[in-house]
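Table S4 entry, CreA protein.
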Amino acid sequence: MTLPLPFSAALCPPPPARSAKSKRLRHQALSAWLAWLAACLAWPAGAALAAGPTTIGTVDTAFKLIGRDHDIIVEAYDDPAVQGVTCYVSRARTGGIKGSLGLAEDRSEASISCHQVGPVQFAQPLRQQEQVFSERTSLVFKRLRVVRMVDAPRNTLVYLTYSDRLIDGSPQNSVAAVPVDHATPIPLKQ
């Protein structure tokens, strides 16, 4: 029996052949196939973590008997297009059984604080307005977004965080500004 592969063969080797000759061989084959599946599923998650947020810490806000507690999480996001700028985003995270399984919808409130953490360098010209980060806050429909805007006359990068849904979003938002030294003008795409 051939099982469908969740990823292309270029990313993961083909699963080991399954043999039904004996109970022991079936068990070994199943173990090998599960190990292969776990490795294939972990590969994209590990690759995504390299470019994703770094968790700075969490603070519990409500105790839950089963599952993790409700909490506030603080994460650091390095701007992928601007070397030397990091944004810190705090947001509420729902706990309990649904929250632990990733089925709960997190609240829309978030706060952002962006800072120059090193010399500011631009690999390429920036768009006037561009989404730089996005994170899922419910199973399917809701996302937390961070948008970078360029205030060219003041040579400042402005970061806005907000939450949106497939149908409607939330007006709650937070903004942070990172002034860039006038000796380093912000390059804009024409």
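The CA atoms of residues 52 and 103 lie 21 Å apart.
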